[in-house]
Design a protein that fits this description.
Blueprint: H1 2-26, E1 27-34, E2 37-41, E3 45-56, E4 61-66, E5 73-77, E6 82-83, E7 86-94, E8 101-111, E9 122-131, E10 136-141, E11 144-148, E12 152-161, E13 172-177, E14 183-187, E15 192-196, E16 204-214, E17 217-228, E18 235-241, E19 244-247, E20 252-263, E21 269-275, E22 281-286, E23 289-290, E24 294-302, E25 309-319, E26 322-332, E27 337-343, E28 346-350, E29 354-364, E30 371-376, E31 383-386, E32 390-391, E33 395-402, E34 410-420, E35 423-434, H2 437-452, H3 457-466, H4 468-498, E36 503-504, E37 511-512
Parallel strand pairs: 2-9, 11-17, 19-26, 28-35
Antiparallel strand pairs: 1-3, 3-7, 4-6, 4-8, 5-7, 8-9, 10-12, 12-15, 13-16, 14-15, 16-17, 18-20, 20-24, 21-23, 21-25, 22-24, 25-26, 27-29, 29-33, 30-32, 30-34, 31-33, 34-35, 36-37
């Protein structure tokens, strides 16, 4: 018997331990109420979200209830008595007579197979604030908008609650009133009403209405919409100032380019340079694009090698398919220069005297550098001095040339040089120097004397040059004379070598004495040898 009692006791203790350990595991579940607090006006309705999660032994159905109930506040559940886990909405309605205040609603959840109260029951609280009578107001801002046909007007929706505790209460838009050919869009955040017009919307003024309701309260607000004719298409103009500029090679200049808005909504306009831009000329625009109205500066730089002339340069503005141009004129003039004018071109002077030339230095194309004068090509001993050796053109100077009595005579090319601004220019003149009168007479007498006196080597050459035909004829006669004399001398010498002459008859061959005129044999006439 004792053994049986001990066994029963041990079995009972094991059962108690088993039940004690199995209760927490069988009812490991949670009950959650969200949000923790709601505000509602007397006579209003609100809701809480009830979430049941976790494991319940045997997965029985779960029963939700409020206990104890609160007078003037009624509750109901959209989902109840279903297996865990699940989510249900608790709808709370407040009687109009309920006094404002804060109320805690006790929410219980228990397995449907467990009596309440009993093991596994869970509890949570829903905090409810009953406020003053609920109300709100609607406002559209701005109160008036003007748009073109086909454009959109945007109004902000402002909601004001009668009590801050109602903030966040959903306002249901029941109606939006728009005009013909219009449509609308409602954007929740931020609350915005967009009214879309079309080309079919007649021009004029329209009242846009908006109606909202919440908790049985309904309000309507309105705003003005003015529909105007459609906006004209975008267009722009382009102009340049000044329209013409003149520069010299190596100089720079600028033009102001103005791009103006003619109509429509401004768009980006891109500028470019084209046209007859000559070699040695560079252009740049700053800025190269913009939205009208705006200004740009066209800078033009020329090199010293740029060819003079007049050039038309085009500035083109482009926006999409729209193109407009402006034309400017760039004139490149001659480079700054100067010239030297000298008069007279020829001067004749006698040894021992002076002469002068008038020198004029004339600036060209805006030349403004100092020009210095110099001289070259004067014969030995002859000097030249400028009255104004250096100055800014235009100016005049006198070149005085002093010729000594022993200077060379003849005609000489004299070069007058002007240098300034990196440029050198020259002018050539003739200086003729004649001998003095006494020297001329002496030379004439010397010439006459040399014709009657024996010729020196220099006189012979000069005489030969002046009387070449006579000299040649005399030489020919002398040659003939000397030739005849030489021939006569040679015959005389031959006769002396030969001895006495002998005559032979040409007919019969008989030798006859030299004194015979006729052959002694045949009587024929003898020839003289």
């Amino acid at each position: 018997m004792n053994r049986i009692r001990v066994g029963i006791t041990l079995l009972a203790l094991f059962s108690v331990l088993l039940i004690a350990n199995s209760i927490p595991a069988a009812f490991a579940w949670n009950l959650d109420v969200s949000p923790g607090s709601r505000t509602v006006a007397a006579g209003g309705t609100t809701s809480f979200t009830i979430t049941v999660s976790g494991a319940i032994a045997g997965n029985p159905n779960v029963q939700l209830l409020v206990s104890p109930p609160i007078l003037g506040i009624s509750t109901s559940f959209t989902v109840n008595n279903v297996p865990s886990p699940f989510t249900s909405t608790m709808i709370v309605s407040v009687d109009p007579s309920k006094a404002p205040g804060a109320y805690d609603i006790p929410v219980w959840a228990h397995p449907s197979n467990v009596l309440y109260p009993g093991p596994g029951n869970m509890a949570a609280g829903a905090h409810l604030i009953v406020g003053s009578t609920f109300d709100f107001s609607l406002t559209l801002s701005p109160p008036s908008i003007s748009v073109k046909q086909g454009d959109t007007a945007s109004y902000q929706i402002f909601i004001t609650y009668s009590d801050p505790s109602y903030s966040g209460t959903t306002i249901t838009v029941q109606n939006v009133g728009v005009g013909p050919g219009m449509n609308y869009q409602l954007i929740p955040s931020p609350p915005t009403l967009n009214v879309l017009t079309s080309q079919a919307t007649p021009q004029g003024s329209y009242t846009i209405t908006l109606t909202g309701s919440a908790m049985g309260v309904v309000h309507t607000t309105s705003a003005l919409l003015v529909v105007q004719p459609p906006a004209p298409p975008f267009d722009f103009s382009i102009s340049a100032s000044p329209t013409q500029q003149t520069v010299t090679p190596g100089a720079s200049t600028t033009y102001s380019i103005t791009v103006g808005l003619v109509s429509g909504t401004s768009q980006n306009v891109v500028l470019a340079v084209s046209g007859s831009v000559p070699s040695g000329v560079s252009t740049s625009l700053n800025p190269t694009s913009g939205s009208p109205s705006f200004n740009s500066i066209l800078s033009i730089s020329t090199m010293s090698s740029a060819a003079p002339g007049q050039y038309a340069i085009t500035i083109t503005g482009t926006a999409g398919t729209i193109t407009h141009t402006a034309t400017i004129t760039l004139t490149i003039g001659q480079a700054p220069d100067f010239r030297i004018d000298v008069s007279p071109p020829t001067q004749t002077v006698t040894q021992g005297q002076t002469t002068s030339y008038s020198v004029h230095v004339v600036g060209l194309n805006g030349f403004n550098s100092q020009v210095s004068l110099g001289i070259a090509g004067l014969p030995a001993g002859v000097g030249g001095v400028f009255s104004v050796p250096s100055s800014l053109p235009d100016y005049s100077s006198t070149l005085t040339v002093t010729v000594p009595s022993n200077s060379p005579t003849g005609s000489f090319t004299v070069t007058i040089t002007g240098s300034g601004g990196g440029i050198t220019r020259v002018a050539n003149v003739i200086l003729a120097i004649n001998p003095t009168q006494t020297q001329s007479q002496t030379q004439s007498q010397a010439t006459i004397t040399t014709t009657t006196m024996p010729l020196t080597q220099g006189g012979l050459f000069e005489t030969l040059q002046q009387n070449s035909l006579i000299i040649i004829a005399a030489l020919v006669l002398l040659v003939i004379l000397f030739g005849a004399l030489a021939l006569s001398r040679s015959r005389h010498a031959a006769a002396q070598q030969r001895g006495p002459s002998r005559n032979f008859c040409g007919k019969c061959g008989t030798e006859n004495p030299e004194s015979n005129e006729f052959c002694a044999n045949c009587g024929s006439k003898l020839r003289s040898n």
